[in-house]
Amino acid sequence: MAAPNKLFLGSFVHSKKLKEIESLHNAAVAVDSSGKIVAVEKDCSEGRARETVLPRLGWREDEVEVVRAADGQFFFPGFIDTHIHASQYPNVGIFGESTLLDWLKKYTFPLEASLADSTKARQVYTRVIRKTLSHGTTCAAYYATIDVPSTNLLADLCHTAGQRALVGRICMNQNSPDKYRDASVESAIADTRANIEHIRSIDPSMALVRPIITPRFAPACSVDLMRQLGALAKETGLPIQTHISENTAEIAFVGELFPPSVTGAADDTYAAVYDACGLLTERTILGHAVHLTDSEAELVARRKAKISHCPCSNSALTSGAAPVRRQFLDRGIACGLGTDMSGGYSPSVLEAARQAALVSRQVVLSGTVDGKREDGAALSVDEVLYLATRGGAEVVGLADKVGAFEVGMDWDVQLIGLNIVGEDGEVINGDGDGGDVDVFGWESWPNQVAKWVYNGDDRNTKKVWVKGRLVHERR
Ligand SMILES: O=c1[nH]c(=O)c2nc[nH]c2[nH]1
Ligand SMILES: [Zn+2]
């Protein structure tokens, strides 16, 4: 049976641009049976919507499902996690005192290798999808593992659960454990193609799930492998995801492994290595980019590559504080947020947004990063929410499809609910499961949203839709 047309009524909050959140109240949004937004009406009561909007769309009242945001609730675009390792979910919060290179060896490679066990992979991936949906993540750029069947399974599970996803089989053929690496460049390419073919078979139009070419990071890939993956991206038009300049020891290692004589690049910087291999494209998502030099940032901007800012991970693994405003935003580089779970300790993009705001304040406090003044580094609530939604949409190549309430976009949305506190100090609305965000009634809308950003969690995410389909409901 076809999904019904839907009419959403109440308050809607979304980013118009980087520094501007818009809130629409007493508004109506109509979503057709394919999940597309077909009308956005400001100042529109339910009665007016029924009298004017439905007839204009040619919809019969009794065929329309009406969803109302109750008091204390508002619709907000779904979050986009631009960098998340589905395979590392069991390790969230487990990183001890390690930093990137020893963390990979001690915690990460053994766990990822163990997911070649299909029972374990199904258990972990099923849980990751449920968990991220429950936190409002409607779209995720996932890293899986090198294993083809379980990476295919992750794509299947996303498709079935209705989560929008980019799913990448990891490529790594050097500086990796003997039992967890691609045996050869040829097998890495063949396995990547097999994963691409599988995803094409389950979602030929890539309406929900699409493949993403995934060289893990330069140290784990030979120049030949990176070149062939660059060529594959060109041949297929598919996006690419990888890590860049996360940690200073990693950057020094890249310099040792890839002198210009090996890559043919102009210099031995991390960005130049990827560029020489055809991996720096307008469809490339670069995770971290904490320590880019100015000339690397300029190269990234020229190539129109995108950046996934991963503040939880950068702090947890003591990688550093990315100078987001100076290096990315002021240069016009598209930037979104990544949980980078489990380098990051949380599956929540809201937590990543909160940490993006806090880390940017640490950048201000530090006075300088890499010798550059950072006085204007602080990111506002409006800005981090932009990165979590519209910014992320641009990073994953879906800027015209998701991230806001605009006619023509898909209904990838979460319903947020906050506690309303009555005169007796008790919560007077909702399901008794409203979390930590208490609203007293005198806060402006921007302040209510700020309270959610700094104190909210999955208890505030009441319902989640992707392409108009209800994919999570909090019970
Ligand atoms: O945060 C990170 N997580 C990873 O899994 C990884 N692999 C290479 N570089 C990495 N960084
Ligand atoms: Zn990562």
Automatic annotation (TrEMBL):
<dbReference type="GO" id="GO:0008892">
    <property type="term" value="F:guanine deaminase activity"/>
</dbReference>
<dbReference type="InterPro" id="IPR011059">
    <property type="entry name" value="Metal-dep_hydrolase_composite"/>
</dbReference>
<dbReference type="GO" id="GO:0008270">
    <property type="term" value="F:zinc ion binding"/>
</dbReference>
<feature type="domain" description="Amidohydrolase-related">
    <location>
        <begin position="76"/>
        <end position="471"/>
    </location>
</feature>
<dbReference type="InterPro" id="IPR006680">
    <property type="entry name" value="Amidohydro-rel"/>
</dbReference>
<dbReference type="Pfam" id="PF01979">
    <property type="entry name" value="Amidohydro_1"/>
</dbReference>
<keyword id="KW-0862">Zinc</keyword>
<dbReference type="InterPro" id="IPR032466">
    <property type="entry name" value="Metal_Hydrolase"/>
</dbReference>
<keyword id="KW-0378">Hydrolase</keyword>
<dbReference type="InterPro" id="IPR051607">
    <property type="entry name" value="Metallo-dep_hydrolases"/>
</dbReference>
<protein>
    <recommendedName>
        <fullName>Probable guanine deaminase</fullName>
        <ecNumber>3.5.4.3</ecNumber>
    </recommendedName>
</protein>
<dbReference type="GO" id="GO:0046098">
    <property type="term" value="P:guanine metabolic process"/>
</dbReference>
<comment type="similarity">
    <text>Belongs to the metallo-dependent hydrolases superfamily. ATZ/TRZ family.</text>
</comment>
<keyword id="KW-0479">Metal-binding</keyword>
<comment type="function">
    <text>Catalyzes the hydrolytic deamination of guanine, producing xanthine and ammonia.</text>
</comment>
<dbReference type="GO" id="GO:0005829">
    <property type="term" value="C:cytosol"/>
</dbReference>
<comment type="pathway">
    <text>Purine metabolism; guanine degradation; xanthine from guanine: step 1/1.</text>
</comment>
